[in-house]
Design a protein that fits this description.
The protein is of the alpha/beta class. The chain has a single domain, classed as Glucose-6-phosphate isomerase like protein, domain 1 (Rossmann fold, 3-Layer(aba) Sandwich), CATH 3.40.50. The chain has eight helices and five strands; from the N terminus they run ααβαβααβαβαβα. Strands 2-1-3-4-5 form a five-stranded parallel β-sheet. The longest helix has 21 residues. It is globular.
């Protein structure tokens, strides 16, 4: 049973990676281009998500601020998931649905990029943040699972991993985020 689970899990993630690999690359390339344009223009990337997607947001920010695979100058990226005092005060005083939108209101500037990550595509606080970003004239990107849902519809650029399995979506999203970091980094070396 353990061997079967091991093999079937890897087979499922390989199949989903292959499905995405042979799909349309335009959204991920467009996302990278938007981030590169923003950074070259003095803007920054604001990235956010819930749970595992919060960890992925922090991972992306660290890869850009520090480095992905090459030595280069620091790139401006902020994970809106890391300041527990801000997140909990907004959740307590306003609503959890506003924890990222409030930070977009405070930190976002025209020319910046807002990247929301949601495996379900249904995260109310991600939708609210992307809507706040659009009002402030930030470029908006959604990285989603399932059919993308309201999160995908709220963004100008939608990168979708079409699966209902949260674990498989997260695995492919992590690969796509590494592709994104690689494309961005190559533009600055």
């Amino acid at each position: 049973m353990s061997v079967d689970l091991f093999r079937s899990t890897l087979a499922d993630t390989i199949a989903l990676h292959e499905q995405v690999r042979t799909g349309d690359p335009a959204p991920i390339i467009g996302a990278a281009d938007a981030i590169i344009r923003s950074l070259r223009g003095g803007g920054k990337l604001l990235v956010f998500g819930n749970g595992g997607s919060a960890a992925d947001a922090q991972h992306v920010a660290s890869e850009l601020v520090n480095r992905f695979e090459r030595a280069r100058g620091a790139l401006a990226a902020i994970a809106l998931t890391t300041d527990a005092s801000v997140v909990t005060s907004v959740a307590n005083d306003d609503a959890f649905a506003r924890v990222f939108a409030r930070q977009i209101d405070a930190l976002g500037r025209e020319g910046d990029v807002a990247l929301g990550i949601s495996t379900s595509g249904a995260s109310e606080n991600i939708v609210a943040a992307l809507e706040a970003a659009r009002r402030k004239r930030l470029q908006t990107i959604a990285l989603t699972g399932r059919d993308g849902g309201a999160v995908g519809q709220a963004a100008a650029i939608h990168v979708n991993v079409p699966s209902a399995s949260t674990a498989r979506v997260q695995e492919v999203q992590r690969t796509l985020l590494h592709v994104l970091c690689d494309l961005v980094e190559r533009a600055f070396v």
